[in-house]
């Protein structure tokens, strides 16, 4: 049974506040993301230099975030402004099949699915497009999509009580959030593990991958921190949503409202922060904006990250996170 101490009306009002604040934060990050995707450090990008896939995903997330804010505003207006005889009043919050309520759920589930898909894509790109490395994540993602379909079918046809007390939707809702949390933890680990392993190997060999005077500017460590921090930002909200849904708490409305915006912020931060690293390193960007790290198959050679050698590391643009970092084994330098 839903928490009666925190009513639906109170939860919806709190959702308006929280979602409005996070939407404002999202708009700032979206502006910087568009600038990063369209602008180099000195000029506008040419048409053949723009990463259109990243642009498309960015605008899809922007559209979802905007619709989410419009939906909660629509529901609040009807509940607190429209008279009950015209279909308004607090009781209108209880109809989960209302168009605004359905729209809010659609954008939440779609935003989550898009964010998870981009995480899987980054993992696929980092592991040299290995389908084997993302097989488990893909299975989880497909399971999440199946839950989404069932949830939307139920929500558009039940015309009944509030979302968190709808027993028919409960197992699929719990399944969706559990899948989302598991997918994010698993896939983020698959992304971070090879980066951490490369950093550790370099440290064991006494090779610094960043500035010798400023260890904190280590490129690989910065990339790893960006991925972990953005992943945690989103995963924590997804975990909180799963707990709220499982416990039938009306706080789900507040948390899930923030999650729509936070998932977009996490996506944008990866693009913005990796592009900033690229700019600081004064690496020429030839076209696309989102860095991905590709690890070459191991050879009987030593990993060299001397930035002055063309045989050691190549930094170029990619369609993934903000400037592409390819680690290559120096075939001429062998381990003693």
Automatic annotation (TrEMBL):
Spans through the membrane? 20-40, 52-81, 101-121, 133-154, 174-196, 226-245, 251-272
Q: Which UniProt keywords apply?
A: Membrane, Transmembrane, Transmembrane helix
- Domain of life of the organism encoding this protein: Eukaryota
Comp. bias (Polar residues):
317-330
UniProt keyword Transmembrane, yes or no: yes
Ranges for the region named Disordered are 310-336
Name of this chain's protein: Uncharacterized protein
Query: What is the organism field in this record?
Result: Crucibulum laeve
């Amino acid at each position: 049974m839903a928490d009666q101490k925190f009513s639906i009306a109170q939860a919806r009002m709190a959702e308006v506040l929280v979602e409005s604040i996070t939407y404002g934060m999202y708009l700032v990050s979206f502006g910087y993301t568009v600038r990063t995707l369209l602008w180099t450090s000195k000029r506008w990008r040419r048409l053949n230099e723009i990463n259109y896939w990243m642009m498309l995903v960015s605008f899809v997330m922007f559209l979802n975030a905007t619709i989410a804010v419009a939906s909660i505003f629509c529901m609040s207006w009807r509940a607190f402004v429209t008279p009950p005889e015209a279909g308004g009043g607090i009781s209108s919050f209880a109809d989960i099949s209302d168009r605004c309520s359905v729209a809010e759920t659609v954008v939440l589930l779609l935003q989550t699915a898009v964010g998870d898909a981009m995480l899987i894509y980054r993992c696929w790109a980092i592991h040299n497009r290995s389908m084997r490395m993302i097989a488990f994540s893909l299975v989880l993602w497909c399971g999440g999509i199946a839950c989404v379909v069932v949830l939307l079918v139920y929500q558009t046809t039940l015309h009944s009580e509030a979302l968190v007390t709808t027993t028919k939707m409960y197992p699929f809702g719990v399944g969706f959030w559990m899948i989302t949390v598991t997918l994010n933890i698993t896939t983020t680990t698959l992304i971070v593990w090879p980066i951490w392993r490369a950093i550790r190997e370099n440290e064991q060999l006494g090779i610094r991958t960043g500035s010798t005077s400023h260890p904190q500017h280590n490129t690989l460590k910065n990339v790893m921190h960006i991925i972990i921090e953005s992943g945690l930002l989103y995963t924590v909200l997804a975990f909180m949503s799963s707990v709220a849904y499982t416990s039938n708490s009306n706080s789900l409305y507040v948390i899930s409202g923030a999650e729509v915006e936070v998932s977009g912020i996490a996506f944008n931060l990866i693009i913005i922060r990796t592009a900033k690293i690229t700019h600081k390193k004064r690496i020429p960007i030839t076209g696309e904006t989102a860095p991905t790290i590709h690890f070459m198959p191991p050879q009987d050679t030593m990993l060299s990250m001397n930035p002055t050698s063309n045989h050691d590391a190549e930094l170029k643009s990619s369609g993934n996170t903000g400037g592409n970092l390819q680690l290559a084994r120096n075939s001429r330098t062998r381990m003693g």
